Amino acid sequence: MLDTTSILTKSSNVGVSLISRRLSNAQLHDTLVRLGVGRVTGSGFPGERSGAIPSIARWSGTTKQTMAYGYGLSMTTLQLANAYATLANHGVRVQPRFERGTPRVCSRAVPAAVADQVMRMLRTVTAPGGTAAKAQIAGYSVAGKTGTARKACAGGYERRYMFLFAGIAPAEHPRYAVAVVVDDPDTRKGHYGGGSVAAPIFSRVMARVLGLSDVAPDAAPITSGTPAARREGGGGAAGR
Hints:
Helix content is 31%, strand content 20%. It is an alpha+beta fold and 240 residues long.
C-alpha cells in the first residue's frame, strides 16, 4: 500500500489516478490553469506556444485520471520549468524572463503550505530508491519528478517516447528550476524512462549552473559518481 509520498517516489500512475478521483473536474482543471498550463508564460520569447488543456465540457469519464499523470494535455518545457519554480517559490507563480530584471509576480497558484509539502515529497524522488536517484548532485539537495510519455499522433499514441525530468536545487533553499525533455531517444541500449535518460542530464546541467552561480552546497555529499558543482580559478565551474 503506497501513501501519497510513495506514489511520487515510485512514480505510480495507478496511485496518482486514485488521488485524482478525490478531486472534482473543476479542481484539477483550475489548478493546472493556475500553474500556467494552456497559456503563454509571457516571457517574450518569439513564437512561444500556449500548450493546451481541453475544456471540462470535453472531458470523458477517464480524462481526469489520465490527465493526472500527464496525458490529454500539452505544455512547453518552459511552462514545465515555470510550474516547478512556482512550487519552489511557495506556490507563487512568477513570469519567466530572458533578461535580468525585477520578476513580475503573476498570481498565487497554490497555497504555500501545499507547495512546501509537495517540495518535501519531491525530494524523496531523487533519494536512493526513488525513480530519479540519477538526478542527485553531490553536496546539494534536489527535488524533482520524472516523466515518461508516448508521443501523440493522429488517433492515439505512437510507440515512440519522450522522457522528462523537472527539478529544483538546492531544494532546501531553492535557487533554480530546470526541466529536461528528451524527444524520441534511442532505447535499444536499455536506457528507458525519465529517471535513466533525462535525470542525468538535469544533474550535469544543474551542477554547472550552481557552480557558475557560486551557490553554496547545502547537503552532505551523497554517493560517488554524482556530479559535483566544483569551483575553479576565476569563479568558473564545471560539472564532472
